[in-house]
Write a structure and sequence with these properties.
5-stranded mixed barrel; alpha/beta; single chain; about 475 residues; globular; about 20% helix; 9 helices
């Protein structure tokens, strides 16, 4: 293999893969250079880290965003099978890698250098959870393949409008994030700029002087990242950049990848325009981990971060919603050491406006956090199947109980219908347990429901 052994400094980001088939979520460390090196590369996949070191760097980067590291005595190589290197498969695809040396007695594998731009700001400085974010969609034409979706279809399916057949696409990435957030977060196409006439309606087509068939997605991402500014101006002008990869790019079984947190997402051609997949990957950009069930990293199909299928109207589960803060007026807390039992009226996020306009909004809760005295809390919501959440794939019209440490990987514990219970021990050395009971659904006439009794869940908690 060609390569060079030396010390290298680069900004490290975590790329998280979304699989179209059963399999664990894939996490990759990318070493991003500010400018192309002598080999013409701007991105390397970091390989050879000890498991403990990998986890340390991953946890740091997912907490604060891209972080500068030095890798002493590492080798830059570009002749390893991509899926064998990354996923254990046997693909002819190749990728450039940064092969980290084995740890020595006095030489660590990686030295954290920090990041002057982000230091002290935390990961929230990387993106907006509320407000208006400009999104650029990138089509790619390579020497041997190109994105199959037309410019117009990319625009329509991502930002809305008429597609090539004249059909209005009124449910897309832009419309659904605005609907889920009730206008608090908007992903919008950038305004047309005469300086960059190739960007039209938020979509730009770039041309690569490279063949991409059998080439790793990370390699093509590096090429696209270096080329896009020639057509669309500095990437810093955009809050998020979505790359729609041509057929033939090697994804190792994944449908798409996104940085967590970050600004870039990239998609296998056949999955590029699925609203659920786009909002799954953009969720990673916002710092969201996966939503799992039954021990699997995915599986909570009441949430884009656990399902992320095609064009589905749904939103994010209780812990993710708590972190995003879009329904913060209806957040509530329960500490089992302060109160033995309490009733809560849980309203589905799809009834946010009805609860807000009711005569007494304070009686309603959309997201309830329960203190467990562990790193992970329990989060409850009523997964009402209607409106913006009409296509939720699991726990329809049930109270969902999810365990999570904030925005990170979450685990679905239960979906409760009327009369059902969920119990768990609390870690306070008392030997007591907390029990959650879904008592009943209360519904009224449509006129009355608009005020405060559309469909409510009364949830009672008490010690056993």
């Amino acid at each position: 293999p060609n390569g060079k052994t030396d010390s290298i400094e680069c900004e490290v980001e975590v790329a998280v893969g979304h699989f179209d088939e059963e399999g664990p979520p894939q996490e990759i460390l990318h070493c991003n250079l500010k400018e192309p090196d002598e080999f013409g590369n701007i991105l390397y996949e970091v390989k050879g880290l000890e498991e403990e070191e990998f986890e340390r760097i991953k946890n740091k980067v997912t907490s604060v965003g891209a972080t500068l590291y030095e890798f002493p005595g590492s080798t830059r190589s570009k002749a390893k099978p991509a899926t064998q290197n990354l996923f254990g498969g046997n693909s002819p695809a190749t990728t450039q890698t940064l092969d980290v040396r084995k740890p020595g007695k006095f030489i660590p594998q990686a030295i954290e250098k920090g990041n002057e731009e982000n230091r002290g700001k935390g990961h929230r400085s990387l993106y907006n959870l509320q407000g208006v974010s400009k999104v650029l969609a990138v089509r790619i034409v390579a020497l041997d393949s190109q994105t199959t979706h037309s410019v117009n279809n990319c625009r329509a399916r991502t930002f809305g409008g008429l597609d090539d057949e004249g059909v209005l696409d009124d449910m897309n990435m832009k419309s659904q994030i605005e609907a889920c957030s009730y206008g608090k977060l908007k992903f919008v196409e950038p305004d047309d700029n005469p300086l960059y006439p190739d960007v039209v309606g938020g979509v730009v087509t770039i041309h690569l002087n490279e063949s991409v068939t059998g080439v790793s997605h990370g390699t093509v991402l590096g090429w696209a990242r270096a080329t896009t500014p020639l057509y669309a101006g500095p990437l810093e002008n955009y809050d998020h950049v979505m790359y729609f990869m041509p057929p033939g790019v090697e994804f190792g079984g994944a449908a798409a990848f996104g940085y967590m947190p970050g600004r870039e997402t990239w998609y296998r051609d056949s999955y590029s325009l699925g609203t659920g997949i786009q909002l799954h990957e953009l969720g990673h950009n916002l710092g969201l981990g996966h939503s799992g069930e039954d021990g699997g990293g995915y599986g909570d199909s009441s949430c884009y971060m656990g399902y992320g299928g095609g064009d589905v109207r749904m939103c994010y589960n209780a812990p993710k919603s708590h972190y995003l803060g879009w329904y913060s007026e209806f957040h509530n807390e329960f500490n089992p050491l302060e109160t033995n039992s309490k009733l809560f009226n849980l309203v589905g996020l799809s009834d946010y406006n009805e609860a807000l306009s009711s005569s007494d909004p304070s009686v309603y809760t959309i997201v309830l956090r329960i203190e467990t005295f562990e790193e992970e809390s329990l989060y409850l919501t009523y997964n009402r199947q209607k409106g913006v959440n009409i296509d939720t794939k699991e726990f329809q019209d049930e109270v969902t109980v999810v365990r999570a440490d904030g925005r990170h990987q979450s685990w679905s514990e239960a979906g409760l219908a009327p009369g059902q219970k969920f119990s768990t021990a609390i870690v306070d050395k008392s030997g007591r347990s907390i029990e959650i009971v879904m008592c009943e659904r209360v519904s009224g006439s449509p006129d009355y429901a608009v005020s405060k009794r559309k469909i409510l869940n009364i949830v009672m908690m008490y010690f056993v």
